[in-house]
Amino acid sequence: MSGMAWKRGMAPQSVYRRQLAKRLGELRDEAGLTLAEVAARIEVHQGTLSRLENGDRGTTPVMVNSMLDCYGVQDPALREDILDLVRADRAQSKPWWRKYSTVLSPTRYDGYLALEASAVSMRSYQPMLVPGLLQTEEYAAAVIGGMRLDLTSRQVKPLVDVRMKRQAERLGGDSPVRFWAIIDESALSRQIGSPAIMRDQLQKLVDLHELPHVTVQLLPLACGAHPGFYGPFVLMSFPEPNPDLVWLELRKNSVYLEGQGDVDGYADVFDHLRALALSPSDTRARIEQIIRELPQ
User: Fold this and answer.
1) DSSP strands (E only) in the chain
2) What is the pLDDT of residue 8?
3) Which of 38, 50, 243, 283 is in Cβ range 3.0-4.6 Å of 218 for a Cys bridge?
4) How far apart are CA 137 and CA 190, in angstroms?
């Protein structure tokens, strides 16, 4: 399935819904039933079942129980595992970012947030900027305001709030994501905002070195040409058995790649860049040197 992709308007759903869709499809196949046969037996529209198996819609415990009865699923533990997925997906349908829907909906960024919230590890390559999860509030405001020419300063603020909340949720708490960032050194030479904003941002990168679940490496200018020239990307990994995927952000939409060939290709690129980059300790030393060289 190499090449499978969604634009932002068709963002893949939460990891729970994806897993639920896969398991229900497998159980129907094991029962030797078609969608039409199941629809007739439990008296629902065939299109509803199709969207459910494609992960395009959620469902209820009542419907899933009817489907499991239809498929002859007797094992109480298996039934409970599948119902747990239904409950988890329903719980995630009311996430913390819902109150920011006015600013998130036009670009469908909520689809990305649902995936990020479910990820257990993320590998990010960024040649132009500090990754969003590592940005200071002031740096984030300067980045968003500079990139989004369609927004007023009042519209920028809630997007900055979302970015800060993402950091608190994914880098803090009891179950933080394992985040590995490779940043091109040129990104730290580009002044975003004032010198003071850049100094604070660089200092934050130094401080993040203390977090055991965050790794930052600089790709030095001296490394020459490399496969990262194609642009930034994020590799996300999820709890088993959910597949990894790649996220590519474009100006007006995003592309999500789930095909194994695509994922493996970007993983190879990340490993190549990681080998070219400075070690985490050398990265910290280089950033501290850049801080000392900033204008006062």
Assistant:
1) 5-6, 121-126, 178-184, 214-219, 233-237, 245-249, 254-257
2) 36
3) 283
4) 17
Q: What sign has the CA pseudo-torsion 223, 224, 227, 229?
A: positive
**Superfamily, domain 15-92:** lambda repressor-like DNA-binding domains (1.10.260.40)
pLDDT tens across 62-119, in order?
889 999 999 999 999 999 988 888 877 776 666 667 777 766 655 667 778 888 888 8
Mean pLDDT of the chain: 88
Q: Residue 89: what residue type?
A: D
Looking at per-residue confidence, does 186 or 104 come out higher? 186
Residue-wise pLDDT for 32-63, tens only, equals 999 999 999 998 899 989 988 888 787 888 88
**Percentage of residues of the chain with pLDDT beyond 90:** 61
Burial class (CB in 10 A: 0-12, 13-18, 19+), 174: exposed
Going by the DSSP 8-state scheme, the letter that residue 223 receives in this structure is G
Q: Hey, what amino acid is at 291?
A: I
- The vertex-136 CA angle with 171 and 251, nearest 5°, equals 90
> What's 97-293's CATH class?
alpha beta
Dist CA 77 CA 63 (whole Å): 18
C-alpha distances (whole Å) from 130 to each of 97, 159, 183, 272 are 22, 16, 7, 20
Burial class (CB in 10 A: 0-12, 13-18, 19+), 38: buried
d(CA 119, CA 67): 29
- DSSP notation for 105-136: GGGTHHHHHHHHHH-SEEEEEESSS--GGG--
